[in-house]
What we know:
Elements: H1 4-15, H2 36-41, H3 54-59, E1 68-74, H4 79-89, H5 93-108, E2 117-120, H6 125-131, H7 135-147, E3 156-158, H8 170-178, E4 181-183, E5 193-201, H9 205-215, E6 221-230
Parallel strand pairs: 1-6, 2-5, 5-6
Antiparallel strand pairs: 3-4
Helix pairs in contact: 4-5, 5-7
Amino acid sequence: MHSISALGQAIGQLFYPHTCAGCGSDKLKQDSSICWYCLSELPATGFVDIKDNPAERLLWGRLPFFAAHAGFYLNRDSLMQQLLYQFKYKHQQALATQLGSLLGEQLKNSSRWNIEALVPVPLHPKKIRQRGYNQAAVICKGIAQQLDLPVIEGVLLRKSMNVSQTRLGRTARWENSRSQYGIDHPHRLRNKRVLLVDDVLTTGATLESCGSLLAAIPGVEVSVATLCISAL
Ligand SMILES: [Zn+2]
């Protein structure tokens, strides 16, 4: 016999069915946004253990970094593209957290990584208002579930948020002036090994701007991880 909560859940599913964000199947665990089949189909890159992997090669010479990783391949009309669309435009925040957790699992199982704090690439405040969240910050939340690390926001900022130029060193100030990004309260990251996180690695321009700013903070060592690498 159904309990009241099971009944409530069944009624709720009539109106808001719990379905896989990848294929639409309703055969999935209640606490998962993706069915078992789609999870098994996600195209992991395997970069996490590999020095000089394609993500690192893309960023070579553009910013000082310790290691770089992209968790999954993003191909045109692929499952990953569908998932990305779901969490960027369909308010699927739990999906972004779950994918972040998968990325965190990859990092946890590799001995190459020695990270102390997670920093998401900041989103323009107007976009946060539209979307309701910064997807890179939600991915960080998922990584933090695996690695138990603090997510530090409010240091790396989008420029429009009135960044103070006077606190920066000369190099950072120059970087700051040509970048859409800026740094505030740099002491919060000083002497830390930081993982800069974004959803997609495409040209690397965003990571170059953000990572260079972070690396200009005294004692900061930057590594980079994105959920996927674009082959589009
Ligand atoms: Zn599925």
